[in-house]
Amino acid sequence: MQASIRLIYKLISVSLLSLAIFFSIYLLKGFHYQLVKSIVISLLFVGLLFYMKYRHTTVIVCHLLIVISWLNNNLNIYLFDDFNFFIALLTVCNIIFAFHTLGSKCGLGYSFLHAVPIAVHFVLRHLGIHMRTEPPAQITFLEGLVTLTLVFFILVYLIYHYHKAYELAGLSLRQSVAELEKSRELANEMTRLKTNFLSNMSHEIRTPINGILGISQIIELESKDETIRQYTQLQQQNGRRLLNTISSILELSRLEAGTDTFSMQAVEVNAIVRQSMQPYQPIAAHKKLSFTFEPAAPELVAFSDGPMLQQVINNVVGNAIKFTDKGHVLVNTFFVQNKHVVIRIEDTGLGISEEFLPRVFNPFEQESTGRNRSYEGTGLGLSISRRYLDLLKGDILVSSVKGKGSTFQIVLPVYRQAT
Q1: For residue 266, which of 145, 416, 400 has the smallest C-alpha distance?
Q2: Is residue 330 within a helix (H) or strand (E), and if so which, with residue range?
């Protein structure tokens, strides 16, 4: 803002000095039209200087300067019945000044405004139509020299300011890129350290928990006391829950660090679905749920990674069983336009509210939160599933009605043999 004010102040000051010289020439030569024109422009320029001083704004001043210069240009074109080198330079100055101080839209608008009267002048000249009946007035040598000096100074000054602005913008951009590169390297290093920390801690935590679970299973098998057996079962249940939580956090960390490795190949979807559903059969039977699988075709081959896909199905089917207390959980598979294999998991469970649905794949987010929530879990299963499917060039879609159930669709690319 201050730079623009200084630029405009210098231009107006130089213009007023030049107008004073022109005023003397016009007065001595008796050029009354030019004399009146220079007086009017001088008064306008002085008024603009006072306006800038008290208003501290340049927008209206810039518009007025360009319009005054444009009117002066047109007056000179039709006064001298010629489009000369000075007018061309002044036109270029006006356009650069408009772009520099008012932006690209105003710059384009003023470019068009300057082009129209010049084009009209050339068309009229081509048709033999002249605005003056008497011979055109001739510019004096001193007037031409002062005009050339003024216009050349303004043009060079504007280009210099453009160049300085370009250099500053380039320097700022390079500094921003360097800072972003440092931030990226720091973020990558922090992610790597976090992943290493979690990996080490996961190993240190899982090892004693597995030992506790192993001892608990031995006690359950050897003890004849039903109360002790119930206690050990509860201990194993909570131990497995803790192991699952640790595994989910570690897996999310690996995904964020980009260290997970996978292999895309042909996988038989129906076989993986059946294998994934098997551990949940006892839980569904205990809750008296109808838990069925309906494949649309005997064999559906997708282009995917088997272990990753199995983990995705485990997460979605596990959620369906967990959040369904009555009714059914139905899993089916089918082709879509011979381009995609779809695994559809439908349940008649708790459902997801419309407000929470956009956040259902966010990590560590669950619709029921706090100490009084009804269902356990970390809120990582669906987030990990979404990230897995992004890696596998697939997708996961969800639709749900609160209190009526949810439907998840796992979309995978069809495997096509190379020909």
Answers
A1: 416
A2: strand 328-336
Is the backbone of residue 261 left (phi > 0), alpha (psi -120 to 50) or beta?
A: beta
Question: How many Cβ atoms sit within 10 Å of the Cβ of residue 43?
Answer: 11
- pLDDT for 406 equals 93
Checking if the pLDDT of 386 tops 50, the result is: yes
Q: 10 Å Cβ neighbour count for 306?
A: 18
Could you give the CA distance from residue 146 to residue 137 in angstroms, rounded to a whole number?
17
Residues composing the chain: 419
Can you list the alpha helix ranges (DSSP code H) found in 262-376? 269-277, 281-286, 306-322
d(CA 288, CA 270): 24
Q: What is the gyration radius of the CA atoms in the chain, in angstroms?
A: 40
Instruction: With CA atoms as reference, report the closest residue to 334 among 310, 304, 305, 299.
Output: 299
Return d(Cα 396, Cα 410) in angstroms, integer. Answer: 5
- Has residue 373 got a pLDDT over 70? no
For the stretch 2-58, pLDDT in tens is: 455 666 666 666 666 666 766 666 666 666 666 676 677 777 767 766 666 666 667
DSSP, collapsed to helix, strand or coil, labels residue 347 as strand
Tell me which CATH code domain 265-413 carries.
3.30.565.10
* Closest by CA position to 320, among listed 258, 265, 385: 385
pLDDT at 372 over 50: no
Q: Domain ranges in the chain? A: 2-139, 265-413
User: 100-139: b or e for each residue (b if 16 or more CB lie within 10 Å)?
Assistant: bbbeeebbeebeeebeebbeebeeeeeeeeeeeeeeeeeb
C-alpha distances (whole Å) from 129 to each of 75, 121, 122, 126 are: 17, 9, 10, 8
